[in-house]
Amino acid sequence: MNTAMRPFRFVLAGLLACAAAASAQITQIVGDWKTVDDKTGRSYAVITIYKAPDGRYNGKISKMLVGPKNLRCPECKGADQNAPLEGLVIIRGMEYDREHNQLVGGKVLDPESGKFYYGKIYPKNGKLVLRGSLDKHGILGRNQTWIRK
User: Fold this and answer.
1) Which helix (H) or strand (E) holds 143?
2) Alpha-carbon distance 49 to 39, whole Å?
3) Which whole-number Å values give the CA distances from 122 to 15, 22, 65, in the listed order?
4) H or E element: which one contains 17?
5) What is the CATH number of the domain that holds 136?
6) Can you give the pTM of this predicted structure?
7) What is the three-class DSSP state of 12?
8) Domain interval for residue 129
9) For the chain, how many structural domains are there in total?
10) Distance, CA of 144 to chain centre
11) pLDDT 10s digit of each residue in the chain, 149 long?
12) With contact defined as beta carbons under 8 Å apart, do 89 and 127 qualify?
């Protein structure tokens, strides 16, 4: 092999290894998750977290686990007003923070109140933690821990 090509191959191998590690980390977050209410401990829905065409991450209610299947969001605003809960995008425009292995930025919709909150999502002990807060720093808010479906 040409000696000039050796450094290039080393750099290329390093980049591929980094890309594979980042891909493995994001797979800890994307996918289907059962919500667990932090107050009651009940599972209400399955949320699917996915990469959107714009490169950001969203999450939608893919299945309701309780109540009638035709539940709607009367408190939601705009195009989401009175939208069916199944299919409703409740996590919007989050970006992957590779350094901390979490999704940040974007907004999280509370279908009960129709209000949006700042959000952060990260894996912890095989589960997923959603931190919704009134402020960007996550000081005034609460956590929900979801389990892999």
Assistant:
1) strand 141-148
2) 23
3) 24, 14, 23
4) helix 5-26
5) 2.40.128.520
6) 0.81
7) helix
8) 5-148
9) 1
10) 12
11) 555 545 444 443 443 334 444 445 899 999 999 998 878 888 999 999 999 999 999 999 999 999 887 899 999 999 999 999 999 999 999 999 999 999 999 999 999 999 999 999 999 999 999 999 999 888 889 999 999 98
12) no
